[in-house]
Structures are given as C-alpha cells and as structure tokens.
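Structure first, sequence second, as always.
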C-alpha cells in the first residue's frame, strides 16, 4: 500500500511506547494519523507536535471507540490502516502462596476476564469497526486492497511465563484471530496481520532499568542477538513494512531478537 499524504491511519495506544513509535514512523512517511489513547494530556501534546489528530478513546468501551472512529474519520477521512497497540491486561499466578494468611490463593476469575476483554475482545472491537469502514471504501490499488489491520500480540502467546496466564491467553487469542479474520475479509480486500514483540524498551521497562538495573541487565542478556531490549522504532519499522508490503497477510510475526524463554 502506498504511504503518502492520502493514507489515513489510526494508531491505538499512540501516546507512548510502541504506538508512539508507529505514529512517528507514519507521520515521517507523510501519512495522516489519528492517535487513540486515554492519556489526553500526552496524546494531545504529541498530536500537536507531530501534526496528528488526538482522540480520547477507551478501548474497553464500544461507545468510546465508535466515537473515536467517527472523530478520526471526520478529520482525516476513512482510515486505510489500523495499528492496534493499546491493551488492558492483568497478571498473577493461577495459584500462589498467600504469606499473610498462610494458605494458597487463586487469581480471581474477574481479573482474567478483564484481561481477556482488554486484549482479545478489544482487538476484535478495533479490527471489526475499522474493517467495516474500509469495506465500504473504494480500492486503493490494482489488487483491490481497501485497507490493512495490524494487531499487537506478544511472544507470550507462545512462550508465556509464570504469572502470564491472563496476558498469554489474551495474546494467544489475538494470534488465533488473525488468519480467520484475514480469510473473512479477503473478499473485500482487507489484510490482517499481527506483530509479536518480545521485551521492548518501553516506559515500563525503562522504569525497571532505573529501579532494578540488575533485573534489566538480565533481561538484556537473555536475548540471543542483539543482546538488548527492542527499540520502539523497530516495532514501528515493521508496522510500516506490513502496511507497504501487500503480500503480507494472515501472519503473526515475532520481533524479539530470537528470544525463547524457559519457564523460569
């Protein structure tokens, strides 16, 4: 797909981390970008600085998401690319030892449910609403393509660690969504892919570096090569290639420096 001033894109979670890196990459290529995020102060400042549009959107709310799409389309026209980075997750071991009460406890079901809503359900919500708009638009190239959807999964979908049963399950559901959704949308010319990042130097990880440098160093050394955490711009670069290269479809692509994590 051609990336220029005619391309309209939406990036969720675009006020920080991987989403922000993708917003920057898209704007540098000349695309019109709408940022969906809950952080209004940061999101508006970034939008002003980069020449994007900010929409305050809660991915857990259907009404909020629909209003965000309406505002983005009013400003930039029908999006032809969606990069969904935002999520609401949770953690905790399935069963763990409660020192205070000297007994085992389980992670509550409502926490698991919230994580699935914030990862899997939110991914479907964003993708399906974007696809509905794209399907009604004219094709953008000779292949009949009308748009592309990029979801953010995780290596935890395949290599989930201790305490990641909710996160890993949610991201696994995202992976499982990609191929059938791509097949659902093939007749209207919409591609669907997912990026599976490993450990990236996003704001939460930079906090680890500051507060627990030994843990951060261990994380870096666990990556085969290069022995460092991923840089957000590397995620943005892959997102751009998935938009440009129209033969990518139905794929879940690891971006992790070759890491394969053991259970401990």
């Amino acid at each position: 797909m051609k990336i220029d001033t005619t391309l309209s894109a939406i990036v969720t979670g675009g006020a920080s981390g991987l989403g922000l890196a993708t917003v920057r990459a898209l704007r540098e290529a000349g695309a019109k970008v709408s940022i969906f995020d809950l952080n209004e102060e940061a999101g508006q400042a970034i939008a002003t600085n980069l020449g994007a549009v900010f929409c305050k959107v809660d991915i857990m709310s259907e009404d909020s998401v629909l209003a965000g799409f309406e505002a983005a389309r009013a400003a930039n026209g029908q999006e032809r690319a969606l990069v969904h980075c935002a999520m609401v997750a949770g953690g905790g071991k399935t069963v763990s030892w409660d020192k205070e009460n000297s007994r085992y406890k389980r992670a509550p079901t409502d926490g698991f449910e919230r994580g699935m809503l914030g990862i899997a359900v939110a991914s479907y919500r964003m993708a399906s609403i974007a696809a509905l708009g794209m399907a009604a638009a004219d094709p953008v190239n000779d292949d009949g393509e009308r748009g592309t959807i990029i979801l953010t999964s995780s290596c935890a979908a395949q290599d989930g660690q201790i305490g990641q049963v909710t996160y890993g399950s949610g991201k696994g559901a995202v992976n499982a969504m990609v191929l059938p959704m791509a097949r659902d949308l093939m007749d209207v010319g919409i591609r669907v892919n997912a990026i599976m990042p490993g450990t990236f130097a996003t704001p939460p990880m930079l906090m680890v570096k500051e507060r627990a440098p030994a843990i951060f160093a261990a994380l870096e050394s666990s990556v085969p090569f290069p022995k460092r955490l991923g840089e957000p711009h590397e995620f943005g670069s892959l997102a751009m290639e998935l938009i440009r290269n129209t033969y990518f479809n139905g794929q879940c692509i690891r971006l992790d420096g070759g890491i394969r994590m053991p259970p401990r």
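Margin note: The chain has one domain: 8-199+231-255.
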